[in-house]
Amino acid sequence: GGEPVRVLVTGAAGQIGYALAPMIARGLMLGPDQPVILHLLEIPPAATALEGVCMELTDAAFPLLQGVVATTDPAVACKDVDIACFIGGFPRKAGMERKDVMSKNVNIYKSIASGIEAHAKPTVKCVVVANPANTNAYILKKYAPKMDKKSITCLTRLDHNRMVGQIAERCKVPNAKVDGVIVWGNHSSTQYPDVNHGTVGSKTIREAINDDAYLNGEFMTTVQKRGAAIIAARKLSSALSAASSVCDHVRNWVVGMEGRKYVSMGVVSDGSYGITEGLVYSFPCVCKGGEWSIVQGLEIDPRSKDLMEATHKELLEEKDLALSCLEE
Ligand code: NDP
């Protein structure tokens, strides 16, 4: 029971938004007893599609759903929200240069920054999903300077969950037996899926799998290229797993860790592990009382250090490219 929590979803009529809205309304993000009000933002060309989503939300008659604010006005969408899931963005189409997509998307995040800063609750918690997710989050932070840096994150939980899924499948154990995996860096193919601190039941992952060639090779590329494999199979990008991971990210941040050792989150670096302060980089985090903190003091072997540095370097370059794309 209690007061409803207001959750913003941008790009709400898109694939991920369509999968995410019912999950939130069913309590998968904030718990089975927490009423919610959905704030759904779309761009004008998708306004009619959004009306259709609203009709379906009405028809599903979710007990926890206490209202829907569907709009194409960012100020209305951001008004008093407690949680903001930024999914809206241009997809990369065939023939588009990386810089073209980058330019479109970082400018979207520059313009939404002032809306969220001005209209959301001061305690709002944000997660950016739209690509380039880390860099969009960086831009959001830069243009919402009054917001707490710790309130802006990006999604790498899907990559984290992909690691868990692969290891559980390989070991033939339930997913819940796998813990302590880490995604370092960018939500891109340079991410470093690190199993060195993870466990399967009472064993380390390396003991349980007992195949370092697999863990350092095929396992990593499977996780890094999973998005492309899903597009090849489905002819559409991942949506249900992305939406489910957004719920996991927010729930573990806001509600609690549910016994997990750590979760991967793209957060604003404080310089931990030598990562440039201010950059949005995925780290192992623990959350308590609605606050994340970066797990400190993990031992990093030389191979890991190189991999963490490569994705760090990509993010520094991405940031510079993004800054050069910003419009006045
Ligand atoms: P999706 O809902 O499939 O994806 C939305 C965003 O999430 C994309 O940027 C996508 O990046 C990104 N993403 C991040 N991680 C993943 C992942 N693991 N799997 C899949 N996607 C991931 O896109 P749709 O095109 O269906 O929907 C986007 C919505 O946004 C549309 O409804 C559109 O109207 C709206 N929109 C809003 C804009 C705005 O706010 N100004 C501008 C343009 C569109 P990638 O493309 O790299 O997969």
Automatic annotation (TrEMBL):
Domain of life where this protein originates: Eukaryota
EC identifiers of the protein: 1.1.1.37
List of residues binding NAD(+): 11-17, 105, 129-131
Gene3D superfamilies named among the record's database cross-references: Lactate dehydrogenase/glycoside hydrolase, family 4, C-terminal, NAD(P)-binding Rossmann-like Domain
Catalyses which reaction(s): (S)-malate + NAD(+) = oxaloacetate + NADH + H(+)
Keywords from the named record: NAD, Oxidoreductase
GO biological process: malate metabolic process
Protein family membership: Belongs to the LDH/MDH superfamily. MDH type 2 family.
UniProt protein name: malate dehydrogenase
Species: Chloropicon primus
